[in-house]
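User: I'm putting together notes for a lab meeting next week and I want to include a structural view of one of the chains we've been expressing. I don't have a solved structure, so I'd like a prediction I can at least talk through. The sequence is below, exactly as it appears in our construct file.
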Amino acid sequence: MISHGLRLDGSRFWVIHRRRVYGPFDYEWSRDFCGVEFQYQGQKFGEYCSVEEICADLKPFHLPHNVFEVASIAIGTILSGILNGDPAANREIRLITKLTELGYCRYAQIESVAG
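Assistant: Thanks for the context. Below is the predicted structure for the 115-residue chain, given as structure tokens.
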């Protein structure tokens, strides 16, 4: 197992921090497909309604700082890619690029779960 990185499985992902795995983080579209609900271990922690209206709060889960930072970057990058119609492979490349740009290059190691 890697000591830092992300594990991806469809819409779900886990953050690996110091060989400890946090997650799953996930998202779910609203019934009208106009919004997206963000989830951590099945519990809502935020939502996307529009570019002007995004909210998220992971404080109640008492996650390490780097975990919620990396999870926030990942969920935002993944959502942006989906809304722009990027194929899954491009979203993964964009995620690696964004993590590296923002100083989280050690989390840019991606493990894909074969389904």
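A couple of points you could mention at the meeting. The chain has a mean pLDDT of 92. The chain has one domain: 4-112.

User: Perfect, that's what I needed.
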